[in-house]
Design brief:
By secondary structure, the chain is an all-beta fold. It has no helices and eleven strands. The strands form two sheets. Strands 2, 4, 5, 6, 9, 10 and 11 form a seven-stranded mixed β-sheet that branches. A four-stranded antiparallel β-sheet has the order 1-3-8-7, with no helix packed on it. A hairpin with a 5-residue loop joins strand 5 and strand 6. The termini are far apart.
Length: about 120
């Protein structure tokens, strides 16, 4: 029972910057890894970046060096700082949270998705 609400999307020119936010609510103590995915028109949803609760990150080759993922566990918020944006970055960006809970004898897992936020990078 985790809800994810994204914000920060918009229209920017090539070379510009944008910061996306994703605030989690509900059973936030159960959240493990959080991640960003994106879906461009006519394409499959693709992985962008992820971060564990402890702060270890994984970045897709296509955005490495330009995007930075971070999280604030005290505020239950995930961020994606996007710099040097390109038209090919245009997509709907989705927040994802992996969850686990329960005693060691019976662990449960689940996942949650945000509603998505539109990012458009113009020429």
């Amino acid at each position: 029972q985790v809800q994810l609400v994204e914000s920060g999307g918009g229209l920017v020119q090539s070379g510009g910057s944008l910061r996306l936010s994703c605030e989690a609510s509900g059973r936030t103590r159960s959240i493990d890894t959080m991640a960003w995915y994106r879906e461009a028109p006519g394409k499959e949803r693709e992985f962008v970046a992820s971060i564990t609760r402890g702060g270890s990150t994984n970045i897709a080759d296509s955005v490495r060096g330009r995007f930075t993922i971070s999280r604030d566990n005290t505020r239950n918020t995930l961020y994606l700082q996007m710099n040097s944006l390109k038209p090919e970055d245009t997509a709907v960006y989705y927040c994802h949270a992996a969850q686990s809970w329960g005693p060691v004898e019976r662990q449960y897992t689940s996942e949650s998705w945000g509603q998505g936020t539109q990012v458009i990078v113009s020429l």
